[in-house]
């Protein structure tokens, strides 16, 4: 651990006392990953979770709660910086899909009648593999070695095992997906500090959702536990919306678009949304800590047709392959979807926006 900078203590707000309709999600215990029998059991649990829910928990991933709390403390202090300081780190080309650095709130209209805009702020930190410039506020720069170590641990202790387990489940070589997700290669992975500033109860009643139903664009998204209940997922089998309960000492993980393309839709890109929190938590802001994993930029998003499982189950083509359009690289896919996501002034009820063509062969959908 690098010499630590004093960040103060970080205290999580109390969990809701409301009786919400919680999703029943599988928990993968990575302490079982060290032997072949445990790997096989975990692989079976993982593919079941991905096929039936799309979200799951991971525990025992060799990162201390203290290290996690320090990252939340960095995020909290970043969002306490003056707005004019944060705005210095807005990426050039934000409207064209660039995303590393600070993305200010208010780019999306949540309620057209009242004009209420989103209050989501984002700070993205790219990989530390030499491909990206790291120009950060002094607060972040003072903790940069610790941030790098944390990001690398997420890759080695969580993502590498998950990619291995998925390959085992699909009867592919164990390194099949790991070889597309090497930390040293250029990809658009990033660590994110994310803040949802609270709305009044009246505003929450008017907007309903802080973020409409959507899918993520990469391979896996890692979400650290924070107790403000807001995340909801759509059960892919029954199409029912369920709340995701914060579980102690776990990561919440979901599969994303790129992984769905790579498996011909066998792994589902999970639909989720961010709702207004329950009434006993509407008085606080919601701070998130996330990591977004994506394949290397030059990977072409073809279905892994060599998988015996995908062949047996009939999942041998993704949307691009079925349409006859060129299958994009991850880089082309990433920036096309990011450009759509970053559309300034987009209205949450604009069907043209919500069903836009991202690339020939793929169009967004209205999920809810």
TrEMBL record:
The Isopenicillin N synthase-like Fe(2+) 2OG dioxygenase domain, residue ranges: 196-294
Domain Non-haem dioxygenase N-terminal: 28-126
One Pfam family hit: 2OG-FeII_Oxy
Alphabetical list of InterPro entries matching this protein: DIOX_N, IPNS-like_FE2OG_OXY, IPNS-like_sf, Iron_ascorbate_oxido_reductase
Record-linked PANTHER family: 2-OXOGLUTARATE (2OG) AND FE(II)-DEPENDENT OXYGENASE SUPERFAMILY PROTEIN-RELATED
Protein name: Clavaminate synthase-like protein
């Amino acid at each position: 651990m690098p010499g630590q900078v004093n960040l103060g203590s970080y205290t999580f707000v109390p969990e809701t006392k409301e009786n919400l309709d919680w999703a029943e999600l599988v928990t993968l215990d990575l302490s079982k990953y060290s032997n072949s029998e445990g790997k096989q059991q975990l692989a079976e649990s993982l593919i079941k979770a991905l096929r039936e829910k799309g979200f799951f928990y991971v525990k025992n991933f060799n990162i201390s709660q203290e290290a996690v709390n320090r990252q939340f403390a960095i995020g909290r202090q970043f969002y306490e910086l003056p707005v004019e300081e944060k705005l210095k780190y807005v990426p050039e080309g934000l409207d064209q899909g660039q995303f590393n650095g600070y993305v200010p709130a208010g780019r999306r209209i949540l309620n057209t009648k009242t004009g209420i805009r989103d209050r989501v702020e984002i700070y993205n930190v790219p990989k530390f593999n030499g491909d990206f410039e790291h120009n950060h506020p002094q607060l972040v720069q003072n903790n940069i070695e610790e941030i790098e170590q944390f990001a690398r641990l997420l890759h080695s202790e969580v993502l590498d095992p998950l990619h291995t387990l998925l390959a085992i489940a699909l009867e592919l070589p164990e390194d099949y997906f790991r070889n597309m997700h090497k930390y040293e290669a250029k990809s658009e992975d990033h660590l994110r500090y994310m803040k949802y500033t609270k709305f009044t109860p009246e505003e929450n009643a008017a907007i309903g959702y802080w973020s409409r139903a959507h899918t993520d664009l990469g391979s896996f998204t890692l979400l650290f536990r924070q107790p403000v209940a807001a995340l909801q997922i759509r059960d892919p089998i029954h199409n029912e919306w369920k709340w995701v309960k914060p579980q102690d000492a776990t990561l919440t993980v979901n599969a994303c678009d790129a992984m769905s393309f790579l498996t011909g839709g066998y792994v589902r890109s999970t639909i989720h949304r961010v709702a207004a929190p329950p009434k006993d938590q509407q008085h606080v802001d919601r701070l998130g800590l996330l990591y977004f994993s994506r394949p290397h930029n030059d990977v072409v998003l073809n279905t892994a047709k060599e998988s015996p499982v995908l062949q047996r189950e009939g999942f041998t083509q993704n949307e691009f392959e079925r349409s006859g359009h060129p299958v994009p690289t991850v880089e082309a896919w990433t920036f096309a979807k990011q450009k759509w996501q970053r559309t300034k002034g987009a209205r949450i009820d604009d069907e043209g926006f919500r069903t836009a063509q991202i690339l020939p062969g793929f169009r967004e959908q209205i999920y809810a």
